[in-house]
Amino acid sequence: xxxxxxxxxxxxxxxxxxxxxxxxxxxxxxxxxxxxxxxxxxxxxxxxxxxxxxxxxxxxxxxxxxxxxxxxxxxxxxxxxxxxxxxxxxxxxxxxxxxxxxxxxxxxxxxxxxxxxxxxxxxxxxxxxxxxxxxxxxxxxxxxxxxxxxxxxxxxxxxxxxxxxxxxxxxxxxxxxxxxxxxxxxxxxxxxxxxxxxxxxxxxxxxxxxxxxxxxxxxxxxxxxxxxxxxxxxxxxxxxxxxxxxxxxxxxxxxxxxxxxxxxxxxxxxxxxxxxxxxxxxxxxxxxxxxxxxxxxxxxxxx
Length: 303
Known about the structure:
303 residues, two-stranded antiparallel ribbon, alpha/beta
């Protein structure tokens, strides 16, 4: 196992990866600025077969150990002669729904990305770095690193951490290199594990995810967005109680990297293996919820 950081080294990593001011003191888009029109045009050429794979989980309406607050779905009207009408409500954060975290979701020492005060978020919502900064969508090159494939296992167990050396090994295995402006997707095999062992409560049992030592690696590659079939962080944190979710802090607050949580990457893993490549055109668009801290999303990989 790779060496874990000390808590002082985690704090030093936060300082090392700080992107505040990189795109101006009023910037609210963060690392999405790495995605240029040229980057999008190049990514479009990766849609060679035309196969589309959704990376979203269904919106679960039933309570489960990993879904204590299910989607509320009610019918407002059914039957002729008018129409069928429904209503739904969702609390997107947590471990059950595929969602995009806004940069205002997490704070560090009273600040969010680019040094904006946490007081910019209140009962009125978020005045800075809300989810609608991505209203035009995220379209760029996507890369998936399949960590269970590297380890030659079906899935990682809760609490297992992924280290930079394994990201390098995944790149080598897949014949791909993560580059500036990419969306990076990390597969832990979480949903395959759920099929085999049943649902578990991540708040108690944890989730596999990245160790804080991966933060400088992510910063060096200048990724635009980070996604995972978990929540990117290894849970429980090896650095608690000081750093409960160091990857959330490092990505959202320090680097300005939006996080895609609870993606379903199993079908994409199958498609990537079939096509023999782990890069693709990636497209995602959040709901335009002004002052929102997150949005449910349906990310698409086009191979």
